[in-house]
Fold this sequence. Notes:
By secondary structure, the chain is of the alpha/beta class. The protein folds into two domains: about 160 residues, Rossmann fold, CATH 3.40.50; about 180 residues, NAD(P)-binding Rossmann-like Domain (Rossmann fold, 3-Layer(aba) Sandwich). Strand 9, helix 10 and strand 10 form a beta-alpha-beta unit. Helix 1 packs across helix 12 and helix 5 packs across helix 7.
Amino acid sequence: xxxxxxxxxxxxxxxxxxxxxxxxxxxxxxxxxxxxxxxxxxxxxxxxxxxxxxxxxxxxxxxxxxxxxxxxxxxxxxxxxxxxxxxxxxxxxxxxxxxxxxxxxxxxxxxxxxxxxxxxxxxxxxxxxxxxxxxxxxxxxxxxxxxxxxxxxxxxxxxxxxxxxxxxxxxxxxxxxxxxxxxxxxxxxxxxxxxxxxxxxxxxxxxxxxxxxxxxxxxxxxxxxxxxxxxxxxxxxxxxxxxxxxxxxxxxxxxxxxxxxxxxxxxxxxxxxxxxxxxxxxxxxxxxxxxxxxxxxxxxxxxxxxxxxxxxxxxxxxxxxxxxxxxxxxxxxxxxxxxxxxxxxxxxxxxxxxx
Length: 355
């Protein structure tokens, strides 16, 4: 290839062009080429994520993206749509960097067919989600969010000191983690500080890992029956879609709390509404929804025993900076023949000539 590496950067209002450029500047000296960079910006999160039959959770016009990326050797992005048409136009493209855990805005199959590796940034927001989960856990169980909302309207909810309205301290409570990947495992030391007993369900994690972290491994029915608080941390797969439905909420202890800082499709929200409205569950904290944003008249928004936030668990300056840094670092690894830290489609590397 030529001695100049052309990099197309499509940032947004969270992972900004400036973050990509700063990361590139830090690593530029490690690349054996001159580097030219062009930037484009899409208006996420001010504009909500879109979906089509090919890619999901994207913002931007695929035709504009195709035109912008056409001369590039490398594309770095966060939420721009990378469709088959974009890939067909970008004949020089050798590498895509997407600073997300799941690059659903990219047609991975089309990129793989064209021999283009995709590097990504799993776990870049794990710490943000861990801290946020602790925050909404406290906010819901101790009435912080609803008392703030009321007092901001000039309403003094003194009755939240009634015995039948107050929550319990976290110390001594049993929490059940559904899914025991990086985020749930990182939660453990924070929960342990509160003196909580921790259960977890994940059939894909070896028993030794639970034991090493002092967590009791249980099956899902056992977790639901014993936990005072259930916190959801599973991935979305065909097997996990709707995994928390009417039967599962009925298995939970009366007066238990439900936390979802993972993904909306994991939950049957009509069933959750019934469990909350009936009083079977004491409350819920939700950062993820079946439709985002949910409609203003969505019934769960009207319940007094629900804390809701607009899917911001992973939103921190640190996670944005970390995502840009991770994919730029792997750009350097790719063009200097080093092993990639993260690659979505590693099979293409067997035939890819680097450098």
